[in-house]
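Lab notebook, bench 4. Still working through the backlog of constructs that have no structural model yet. Next entry is a single chain of 356 residues. Request: give me the structure tokens for it.
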Amino acid sequence: MERKYRVVVVGMGKRGMHHATTFQSNGRFEVVGICDIDKGRLDTAAAKLGVTLKGTDAAQVAAAAKSDVFCFCTLPNIRKDMFRIGVESGAKLIAMEKPVALTSAEGFAIRDMVNASGIKVVVSHQHRYGSHYQKVKEIIASGALGRILTVYGTSTGWMAHMLSHLIDYTRWYNNEAEAEWVMAQAAGRGKLTDVHPSPDYIAGIVHYANGVHGVLECGAGAPDVPEVDAWWRKCRIGAQGTDGFAETLTGAGWRSVTKTGSASGTGSMNYDLDMPPYIQEMADWLDDDAKVHSCNFQSAYKGFEIMMAFCRSAAQGGQVALPLTEPADELEMLRGAVSARKVLLSMPANAKEYLG
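Model written out:
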């Protein structure tokens, strides 16, 4: 009989409940403890999940639960603290929300904890399980685009919410080639005070060792994706090669043009479809070290370094070499360097988020 893994989930907001309910519906897991600082939300979640071990202190819940998996879906300003609790609880796997951290100083500390503990870590870039994302990956891998020249991603959402997604999927479309340097620019200070602190708009280039360039735009100046109605799903991610292109629209399927003609298909971000395989891969990895999770920390950390390098380049100017060798507080760099001028918008719909 296959072993059932015990799970603690910290943070009972939307994402925490997505994780908890998907763990509960997978026969390989049992949610044995939950935590949230909001007592009312905690009690509601406990009743829905049928969990008796609950509390507002994550360390206490984790210590009592003795879980195999420590999952946290909290605001990004406490990543290192949550990570330390997960390691000290004795969990075999930590599942965490993106981004890895908000600064490279914190990211270096988390990376060092991963390396020292040997713990398995998964970062929730779960959109890649969508059928439209998978279809574009299939087209690229088939060689139908010829030699890949460029991978690209745009999102009207701001950096700390969306840029790690864009980086992760474009790296995946480029076979996770090593990034050697970046160059970027940023505009607008409004979102630097947000709970997901970010410049209002950031855009830049990633140079990969295989010669491919990544082109990424995130925020108020990113182009509209008019085929998508839902604002947060206005993301376009794809690859261009010598023989054509293929791209996914987060909220409106996929399309391609190759030597054999044009094609398109359906698909949209859907947690009910994307979360189950993401959770199942955790069981597979816990069962077998060789079955490394698609959203493993080592891959996500390389994407995180690209994001931090974007911030450094935007703040200091010029190219930034990768991997990063010294920690820094990139948010303070941006607060000191980004102009006070209001950001310019790519479309009127962005005014509500960035000029409101």
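Notes after review: The radius of gyration is 20 Å. The mean pLDDT is 97. Flag for follow-up if needed.
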